[in-house]
Design a protein that fits this description.
By secondary structure, the chain is of the alpha+beta class. Helix content is 53%, strand content 26%. It folds into 2 domains: 71 residues; 96 residues, Ribosomal protein S6/Translation elongation factor EF1B (Alpha-Beta Plaits, 2-Layer Sandwich), CATH 3.30.70. Strands 1, 2, 3, 4 and 5 form a 5-stranded antiparallel sheet that branches. Strand 2 and strand 3 form a beta hairpin.
């Protein structure tokens, strides 16, 4: 049967069979293997991202703690912060005088309620500076955001008096 066919035709049939078997083999096994390899590669990348997520969570927690430290201890009540400002002032051992503690100013945005307290004190420059330093370093309920020194002349005695206005702010996250 195959004796009547020339070698050239046999060769072409063999090449055609090889191509057909190659295409079939590619579709039935090689393409599945290549897809599995791609899937394995993408799964390894996802696994690497997931394994790094614990480190990222820890880093984010450290950043949140750092920001909490910057903006002040979380206080549940704004009046409590005012009371703590007064308590801290009484603990400071110097001759500066408490002139005024204004009411709490409340503001808010999309994410936070912002509470602002203004403390007005008078005394010598060194006393006022020492008071400011104590509030800056040891006061945990709020943070000092502004300090302003100014001089006013008293009308009765015609003496100049040094005042300092300290502005505190603390934040409360809106849930």
């Amino acid at each position: 049967m195959f004796e009547n066919i020339s070698y050239r035709k046999k060769f072409l049939v063999l090449i055609t069979l090889l191509i057909a078997i190659g295409i079939t083999a590619y579709k039935r096994s090689y393409s599945i293997t290549l897809d599995a390899y791609k899937s394995l590669k993408s799964s390894r990348e996802k696994l690497k991202d997931v394994s790094n997520s614990q480190e990222r969570i820890a880093i984010l927690k450290e950043k949140v703690d750092y920001l909490d430290n910057i903006i002040g201890k979380k206080a549940t009540n704004a009046d409590l912060v005012q009371q703590e400002i007064i308590n801290t002032f009484t603990k400071i051992k110097n001759d500066s005088d408490l002139v005024k503690l204004e009411e709490v100013h409340k503001a808010n945005n999309e994410y936070f309620n912002i509470y602002t307290n203004r403390l007005l004190i008078s005394g010598t420059f060194n006393e006022l500076l020492a008071t400011t330093y104590k509030y800056e370093k040891e006061f945990e309920f709020s943070r000092v955001v502004s300090v302003r020194f100014y001089v006013e002349k008293e009308l009765r005695t015609r003496k100049k008096k040094l005042f300092e206005q300290i502005i505190f702010q603390n934040y409360e996250k809106i849930d």
